[in-house]
Amino acid sequence: MSVPANLKLTPKQTALVDTLVSEGCSIKEAAEKAGYAKGESGRVSASKALSTPHVQQYMQMKMSETFGLTATGALATVARLSRNAKSEYVQLEASKDLLDRAGYKPIDRSQVQVAGDIKVSIDLG
Questions:
Q1: Is the dihedral angle over the CA atoms 29, 74, 78, 108 positive or is it negative?
Q2: Percentage of the chain surpassing pLDDT 70?
Q3: Nearest to 30 by CA among 43, 40, 41
Q4: N or C end of the chain: which has fewer CB within 10 A?
Q5: How far apart are CA 79 and CA 59, in angstroms?
Q6: Whether residue 6 has pLDDT greater than 80
Q7: For helices 40-50 and 53-84, what crossing angle results, to 10°?
């Protein structure tokens, strides 16, 4: 995915965010791979870049994109565990997780309903 025109990131900033999101490495490692200076000065420059609003917005966009792409694999893993795990406990937990995410939550047992009118009368005289 390309950088939206309204964000105006430099090629180094784009490479920095892309590396951080895709590889999950440290800022220092991502800075070196993105072309910032090696060592502490590159890490400092990269940290400053990451603190700017437009770079943060791009990072949020890339993270959302990555989560969306990996969610299907995670769903497949949980579904496979609910069917094929050797442990019945793992099957149960995976099944409960799938049901919960599908909107079928168990009833909250701590619900309390109070019905009736309460009247308070204070006589100060």
A1: positive
A2: 91
A3: 43
A4: C
A5: 30
A6: no
A7: 90
Cβ within 8 Å of residue 43, ≥6 positions away: 27, 28, 31, 36
The DSSP result for 74-96, as a single string, is: HHHHHHHHHHH-SSHHHHHHHHH
The token duo for 62 is 């890339």
On the 0-12 / 13-18 / 19+ scale of CB atoms within 10 A, 54 is middle
Q: Of 55, 69, 73, 68, nearest to 19 (Cα)? A: 55
Q: Inform me whether the pLDDT recorded for 110 exceeds 70.
A: no
Q: Give CA–CA dist 21/63, Å, rounded.
A: 6
User: Residue 93 class from Cβ within 10 Å (0-12 exposed, 13-18 middle, 19+ buried)?
Assistant: middle
Digit-coded pLDDT (tens) for 58-85 = 999 999 999 888 888 999 999 999 999 9
In the block, tokens 């204070």 appear at 122
